[in-house]
Amino acid sequence: MYARLRSRPHCTAHSASHKGLQTRPFSDAEEAIAPLAVIGDRPSLQTRLESASLFGPDLQNIPVFPGCSPPIQRNPTTVSSKGEISQTGKHLSELGDRNGSDQSMDPVPQPILRLSAPLGQVTEHALTYARSATLPLLPRAGIAPTTVTAPRIQRWSPSNTTSETATPTAPPWNRTEIMAIQRQLRRLGLYQIRVDGVLGPMTESGLVEAFGGEQWRTLDAATATGRLMAATAPTTGRRGEHHLRYGEMFRDGVLDMTLGIGFDEEGHHRHTIRAFQRILTARGFVQDADAARQIYKQAGRAMGESAFGLFFVRENALTYTPPAAEARQVHAVVRLIFSADGSEGAAASGAFREGMAQSDIAYYSGHGRYGSGPDFDRNFMSFELLDRDGNIEQEIRDYTVLEREMRNEGRRSGRSAWQQFLWRVNHNRINVLGSNQGNVFVNPQNRHSGEFGSRLIYWSLQRQGRTGSAPVTGQAGELARAAVDHPERRYRLLVFDGCRTQDYVTSLRATPGHDSRSTDILATQRTVDWGDETGTLETFLDSVLGQQSAEQIIRGMDAQQGPTTPGGRRGGAYRGFGLEDNPVVR
Question: Where do the structural domains in the chain lie, given as residue ranges?
Answer without folding.
Answer: 384-431
